[in-house]
Amino acid sequence: MTAPITLVAFAVLAATLGPRLLARSPWPDRSPRMGILAWQALSFSVVAAVVLAGAALALPAVPFSTDIAELLSACAMALRAQYATPGGAAVSATGAVLAITVLARAGYCLTAGLVTAARERRRQLDALTLIARPHERCDAMVVDHSAAAAYCLPGRRQQVVLTTAALAALDEDQLAAVLAHERAHLRGRHHLVLAVSAALARAFPRIPAFRDAHRELTRLVEMLADDVAARRNDRLTIATALVRLAEASAPAAALGAGGSTCLARVHRLVAPAQPLGATRSLLAAVATAALLAIPVAVVAAPAVVAATADLCPIDFPAGTFS
């Protein structure tokens, strides 16, 4: 019972303290890519800890052996012993239900979210074929609209969309920066990052950690796209373009340059912080890896200990080797 209790305690601790520490730390804004990985690792580690806790309850610990036949025999004997008593059967059934329920709920919400988003993007793309026209000088579609907006529709038929108001509001350099921002979303498949975080937030709405993760990931993917665009475009140019697109929001299942995150992003572009640096990036990477490794290590620890122990000592008669 030690492993399940440890895993549940880790899940509670990670779900309560993890979001607070990450949200208050300034380093994710300085390295959005690493920040995205950290928030993803936090979410995955919470889910993994709960699932592995259920699995540890459902499957009793068995001796480690490199002999497959011996290992299977030990597993069968341990399972029979676990289910031989009403208490053991109830504990195992509870663990199995917990693990299966969490996996099924998360998988269902992710699948439903992806299907709904794909359907919405397909509907929008079909509408674009009727009302939009190709831009003369760049790979984008133009829609007549009074609101200045720029967004991209990811997926197999990925497309960047601009409104006529956006073309009127942006000069050549600003337009190039906005297009670089949207193409960074498409190349980075940021819609999948947000789809997973949104699915966990829907699957477990009573766990604030998943809502916090989705909110922060929405902000960080926009910052990452800004940084990618800034590799070939002036940061002040990007900031000016964001100001002119700030009031417009992207339609459902799309990723837009404007929206509610604009103000913080403009401030970050105008007054950029120092890069995270090699040492701090390494520390952040180690902490991120530890979040993912701890649940697996807790489950694997008994097997590792068993592997180094003398499971079947043999008592030889005195004087056998004399």
Structural commentary:
- The chain has a 5-stranded mixed beta sheet, sandwiched between helices.
- It has 322 residues and is mainly α.
- 70% of the residues lie in helices and 5% in strands.
- The protein is elongated, with a radius of gyration of 26 Å.
- It has one domain (2-307).
- α1 (2-24) packs across α9 (208-229), α3 packs antiparallel against α5 (86-131) and α7 (172-188) crosses α10 (235-245).
- β3 and β4 form a beta hairpin.
- The relative contact order is 0.14.
- The chain has 12 helices and 5 strands.
- The chain starts with a helix and ends in a 14-residue tail after the last helix.
- The longest helix has 46 residues, at 86-131.
- The chain has helices spanning 2-24, 27-30, 32-58, 68-83, 86-131, 164-169, 172-188, 190-203, 208-229, 235-245, 262-270, 278-308; strands at 133-134, 141-143, 150-153, 159-163, 255-256.
List keywords for this structure.
322 residues, five-stranded mixed sheet, 12 helices, elongated
Average the pLDDT over all residues and give the rounded result: 86
Radius of gyration, in Å, reads 26 Å
What is the topology, as strand order, of the major beta sheet? 1-2-4-3-5
- The poorly predicted ranges are 310-314
Largest sheet: 5 strands, mixed
Reading the helices and strands in chain order gives HHHHHEEEEHHHHHEHH
Name the structural class: mainly alpha
How many domain modules? 1
